[in-house]
Amino acid sequence: MQNRILLVEDDLEIVKNLTAFLQGENFLVTAFSGQKQALTYIEEKKNEIDLVLLDISLEDGNGFSACAAIKTNFGLPVIFLTASGDEYSVVTGLDLGADDYIEKPFRPRELISRIKSVLRRCGKAQTVLELGDVKIDTSGGMVTKSGKELFLSALEYRLLLVFANHKGMILSRTNLLEEIWDAAGEYVNDNTLTVYIKRLREKIETDAQNPTIIKTIRGLGYRAD
User: Fold this and answer.
1) 32 and which of 13, 38, 146, 222 could share a cystine (Cβ 3.0–4.6 Å)?
2) pTM of the model
């Protein structure tokens, strides 16, 4: 099951780019430019929203009043997206119950990290990820293939999570090294990464010599489907 995000933002270019990015990270995204539309949608679909990304400056109304209404009436997690970096805006947003606050321009990976952190705290994080016939139960740390449990090392598990959380995206070796650096207290370099990808494929692929889950994209890196 994908986590569902409501994006409330009046900059159409940001909406376009952020929606595409979040969809690439396996989120479902619905977007509105104004407070009235957003609140009407939440009232009708509150059980189909896991988190609200909310700008302070909106087409109608403003993020502060929208946040107050969302928190008071629906209790949904809210992360403010704003270019306003002054202390007053930060304090006001948090006092209204916002779960986090991130300034534009933001780094995409940082935003994803913040979103997942808030979802975990609020008990709304996606707990079962899938890659082909491999399922990863993140709440229990269990990995199964066609219903049979697989036993992975801590670093193999971390590597699998990176691929699952970036499903469909090409990850360079540098990207992967940044994600798993020192996971499980083990030193990881480029050669070690090759070994761990080979070991992981041997456990999750039906045929490790012809992988269908973690594919090599020649000259670019890897992609999990």
Assistant:
1) 38
2) 0.59
